[in-house]
Design a protein that fits this description.
Number of helices: 12
Helix content: over 70%
Number of strands: 0
Oligomer: single chain
Largest sheet: none
Strand content: under 5%
Radius of gyration: 18 Å
Order of helices and strands: HHHHHHHHHHHH
Number of domains: 1
Structural class: mainly alpha
């Protein structure tokens, strides 16, 4: 019973992460009307690390680092960088779906790297989730591969690897330390990428600043902490499936902020995604 309660708490937490990340699509799309991706990512993680430093100060402690935690941070940088560069050339719907492909990649990577076989329920849930995601975004009608599509597909691979690595990193770091381990490399690498990508525009208007504050503090500091906490309680496949709810929340924020309305087919897709999550955890309670 205790394991079931912990698993349920992990699922709820990972859905919270999906909701926070779902809101970033609208925020970043708005910011990219005047800001370049790399300097935006740099400012975002400045806000994130400032908030983390305040938390550490209040707790009176120093952060701990590990090789696995830093590796997760490097993957976070590539996940965000590729996603944002891709997002400048494709719609938020396409970006959400292709990024969501990290879910079926996780059990494959687990098998390739660690020889861990996925359960039958996990595989079935992956299929249900991918079908739901396809219906939700309209990708079931086919997505022509553009430069933005390919960059976002690589982003999905980076996030799948990050989920796999976080599953190992949480065994040696608490959630706050793991969050810092992921934020520091992302800040450093995004700063290095600015001259490499020749991206300098970052007007500090209300749109850019509000997007950076939201994505930096809520969608980064709070979300990474929740993800690490959740993955102490659920396996990586379940975490991946929970994060598949991100496009559903992305559409919800688009409806609330931009007036977009889901079609009945998209509603069906959202329901299939939600149904896939408890199915995936049926044989995976820790």
């Amino acid at each position: 019973m205790k394991g079931s309660k912990q698993s349920l708490a992990g699922i709820i937490a990972i859905l919270g992460v999906a909701a926070l990340w779902g809101g970033t699509f609208t925020a970043m799309k708005s910011a990219f009307s005047s800001a370049d991706p790399m300097p935006f990512l740099f400012v975002r993680f400045i806000f994130s690390l400032v908030s983390l430093a305040i938390i550490l100060k209040l707790m009176g402690r120093r952060p701990r680092f590990s090789l696995m935690g830093i590796l997760a941070g490097i993957l976070v940088f590539f996940g965000y960088a590729l996603q944002m560069e891709g997002l400048t050339g494709i719609s938020a719907a396409k970006s959400a779906f292709i990024t969501g492909l990290n879910a079926p990649m996780v059990p494959l990577l687990e098998f390739i790297i660690f020889r861990r076989k996925p359960t039958h329920n996990s595989l079935l849930a992956m299929l249900v989730g991918v079908l739901g995601l396809s219906l939700l975004t309209g990708a079931i009608h086919g997505i022509p591969l553009s430069r933005g599509d390919l960059l976002t597909l690589l982003c999905a691979l980076a996030w799948a690897l990050q989920i796999v690595i976080v599953d190992r990193a949480v065994k040696g770091l608490d959630p706050l330390d793991l969050t810092i381990n992921q934020a520091v490399p992302t800040l450093v690498l995004s700063g290095m990428a600015i001259p490499i990508m020749n991206e300098w525009d970052i007007p500090l208007n209300i749109t850019v600043l509000s997007a950076a504050l939201y994505t930096g503090i809520l969608a980064t500091t709070a979300a990474f902490f929740l993800q690490a906490w959740a993955q102490e309680r659920i396996p990586p496949e379940s975490a991946a499936l929970g994060l598949m709810g991100e496009p559903m929340f992305a559409y919800l924020f688009s409806w609330l902020l931009l007036g977009e309305i889901l079609t009945p087919i998209q509603v069906l897709g959202a329901l299939l995604i939600l149904a896939s999550i408890p199915l995936a955890t049926k044989d995976s309670v820790r």
